[in-house]
Amino acid sequence: MSVTKHIMTSIRWYFNSGKWNPSAADWVRAAQRVQPEEKDRIGKFVFKKDAKSSMIGRLMLRRMLHRLTKIPYADIRLARTEKGKPYLTNELPPDFVSLSFNVSHHGDLVVLAGELACDVGIDVMKLETPVGAQTVQDFFHTMRRQFTAEEWACIRQGTDDREQLNTFYRLWCLKESYVKTLGVGIGFEVKRLSFTLRDSLTADGGNVHSTVLAVDGSPALGWEFSETMIEDHCVAVARKLGGDVKSFLSKEERLHNVSTFQSLTFEELLEGSVPLSEPDELYGNIFISKKENPWST
Description:
Blueprint: E1 10-16, H1 24-32, H2 36-43, H3 48-69, E2 78-80, E3 86-88, E4 99-106, E5 109-116, E6 118-126, H4 136-142, H5 149-156, H6 161-182, E7 193-196, E8 212-215, E9 218-219, E10 223-230, E11 233-241, H7 243-248, H8 251-256, E12 262-263, H9 266-270, H10 281-288
Parallel strand pairs: 1-12
Antiparallel strand pairs: 1-5, 2-3, 4-5, 6-11, 7-8, 8-9, 10-11
Helix pairs in contact: 1-10, 2-3, 5-6
């Protein structure tokens, strides 16, 4: 198979874990389809909300990897870098240029981006007032060192707190998508990044591809960003392109081949999966006994 048949294959998925209320039996089925060490890690979450997001993220990864690489579901092996980023330990088929993927969750959504032949990172933020913040402006004050003067000027263009907060989250998503693409984790000084927003991000689900980045004051060459709104969440995807990719396709052709986000159901997530362990009813019962979040009664 030629390299060009793979160069821009992409996957974009999302799952609303906030609306997902699994039974004990559903939770057991899900747990059977992730690696035992991940099942144990997920079981340590105190609240259902966090456990659900983590479980869905792992199921998304395994489905995506099985679909793109054709590696048998039971043979897929994932590990984590020192920074906590998942990676595939299996050897890729010889005709693959590369494989990159990333998962993020916030609010009600879990999102995934997968790419062949370029590095990818994704972030999602629910457009809501931050928990614990007395006012939006107080929240901005605590985050003042995370954005450049130009970015703060862009945020302040909003006519009210809501508009300003939405722009804040949009810029934060972009910064996080860049950092996740690099895989460097916490510690990267995001004020080194300055994004220029050229188009509005609307709630109709359309994609914005015009945003540009400067790093330490210089244009970030070889980077492309896609943004969209999904169910009152902003989502940003960063892609770092290699020279081989850019030489094959124009920017318009590359963007045309990027998938739009597809919503998945729980049953769709399990399609093609096989149990990796025996059913653990106690694991399901413990999950059911947990509170949804810290504010649940």
